C-alpha cells in the first residue's frame, strides 16, 4: 500500500514497513487497518502472506513452519527494497504474534533494517508452553501434542493432513483458546483466512525462541504487549525487551491477544506505533537532515 503523501520522504525515497501476520493469519485479517494508518503518515507498506497461506502460492497449505516463514520475511524485505520510490535504508519490520518474533530474528540477521515493531510477540516458545499450562492445564498441551503426532503419522504414511483450528473458545480444540473467539475473529478476519492449520505445528512451538537473537539487534525496537494476553506470555516479551537494552521501548496495554486487530485496542496500539516510527524514521533520514 503506497503512502498517501511524502511527509517522511527523504533523498533516498519514502520509508516502508514490511508487515506479516502471526501463525496462521493472512494479510487481509487485521493488518490493513495498520497499513492504512502508516500510509496516511507518509509510510509505504509491503503486506504479504506466507507461502501456503492466503493469496500466496506454495504447498503444503496451512502448514506453519518457522523456518519457511522467516525465509519469506527475508524475501519480502528484499522485495520492498526494490520498490520504486522506497528508501532501501529505511525499511521497518512489523510483526504480530509469531511474526512479532520473526521480525526480531530477521532484523538481527540483517543490519540494514531501520527499526522493528513487535506487537504481542511470541518471543520464547518454551515460555509459551508454560503459559498454556498455566491458563488451560497440562491436559490441553497433551491433547495438542496428540493431534500433532497424528498429523505427523499421516504425513509419513502419505495421507491427507490432519488439521486443527487456529483459534476457538477456551476448552475447545484449537491452537489458541480465547474467550469470544468467534465474535472477535469475525470483526477482522478477511476472506482468505482459514481457521485451521496442520496439527504438527503444535509439536514445534517450544523450538521457536526469537529471544535468543535479540542481543544481536542494532536498530530501535518497539515491543507492545497485552497484559491480559492468554497466548503470548507478557513476561517473556518483557524479558526480551530488557535484553535489547536501550534500543527497546516497551508499551503495555490491558488487552488480550486478539484485541489488537480492531476497535479501541487497535487504535491505541497504532497511535503508539506511529509516534515511534515518525521519531525513528526522521532521525534515520529526513529532508531536513539531508541523509538517506
Give an account of the 3D structure:
- This protein is an alpha/beta fold and 292 residues long.
- The chain has a domain at 14-127 and 209-284: 3-Layer(aba) Sandwich (Rossmann fold), CATH 3.40.50.1820.
- 37% of the residues lie in helices and 16% in strands.
- Helix 2 (66-81) packs across helix 3 (98-109).
- The radius of gyration is 18 Å and the shape is globular.
Write the layout of secondary structure elements.
Elements: E1 14-20, H1 31-40, E2 44-47, H2 66-81, E3 86-96, H3 98-109, E4 115-119, H4 125-136, H5 138-156, E5 163-164, E6 167-168, E7 176-177, H6 181-186, E8 197-198, E9 221-226, H7 234-244, E10 248-253, H8 263-284
Parallel strand pairs: 1-2, 1-3, 3-4, 4-9, 6-7, 9-10
Antiparallel strand pairs: 5-8
Helix pairs in contact: 2-3, 4-5
Strand count: 10
Number of helices: 8
Helix proportion range:
25-40%
Q: List low-confidence stretches.
A: 286-292
Gross geometry: globular
* Widest sheet: strand ordering: 2-1-3-4-9-10
Structural class: alpha/beta
Can you tell me the CATH architecture of the domain at 14-127 and 209-284?
3-Layer(aba) Sandwich
Strand and helix order: EHEHEHEHHEEEHEEHEH
Distance between the termini: 21 Å
Name a few traits of the molecule.
292 residues, alpha/beta, Rossmann fold, two-stranded antiparallel ribbon
Amino acid at each position: 500500500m503506497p503512502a498517501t503523501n511524502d511527509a517522511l520522504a527523504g533523498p533516498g525515497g519514502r520509508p516502508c514497513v514490511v508487515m506479516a501476520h502471526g501463525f496462521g493469519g493472512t494479510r487481509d485479517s487485521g493488518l490493513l487497518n495498520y497499513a492504512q494508518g502508516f500510509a496516511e503518515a507518509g509510510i509505504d507498506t509491503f503486506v504479504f502472506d506466507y507461502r501456503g497461506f492466503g493469496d500466496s502460492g506454495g504447498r503444503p497449505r496451512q502448514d506453519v513452519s518457522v523456518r519457511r516463514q522467516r525465509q519469506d520475511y527475508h524475501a519480502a524485505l528484499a522485495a520492498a527494497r526494490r520498490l520504486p520510490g522506497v528508501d532501501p535504508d529505511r525499511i521497518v519490520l512489523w510483526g504480530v504474534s509469531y511474526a512479532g518474533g520473526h521480525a526480531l530474528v530477521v532484523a538481527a540477521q540483517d543490519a540494514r533494517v531501520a527499526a522493528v515493531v513487535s506487537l504481542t510477540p511470541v518471543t520464547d516458545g518454551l515460555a509459551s508452553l508454560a503459559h498454556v499450562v498455566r491458563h488451560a492445564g497440562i491436559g490441553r498441551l497433551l491433547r495438542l501434542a496428540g493431534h500433532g503426532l497424528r498429523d505427523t503419522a499421516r504425513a509419513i504414511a502419505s495421507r491427507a493432513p490432519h488439521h486443527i483450528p487456529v483459534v476457538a473458545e477456551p476448552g475447545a480444540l484449537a491452537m489458541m483458546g480465547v474467550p469470544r473467539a468467534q465474535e472477535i475473529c469475525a470483526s477482522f478476519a478477511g476472506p482468505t483466512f482459514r481457521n485451521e492449520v496442520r496439527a504438527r505445528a503444535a509439536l514445534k512451538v517450544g523450538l521457536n525462541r526469537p529471544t535468543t537473537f535479540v542481543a544481536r539487534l542494532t536498530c530501535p525496537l518497539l515491543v507492545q504487549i497485552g497484559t491480559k494476553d492468554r497466548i503470548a506470555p507478557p513476561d517473556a516479551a518483557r524479558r526480551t525487551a530488557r535484553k535489547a537494552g536501550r534500543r527497546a521501548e516497551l508499551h503495555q496495554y490491558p488487552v488480550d491477544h486478539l484485541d489488537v486487530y480492531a476497535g479501541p485496542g487497535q487504535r491505541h496500539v497504532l497511535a503508539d506505533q506511529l509516534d515511534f516510527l515518525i521519531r525513528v524514521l526522521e532521525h534515520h533520514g529526513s529532508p531536513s537532515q539531508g541523509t538517506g
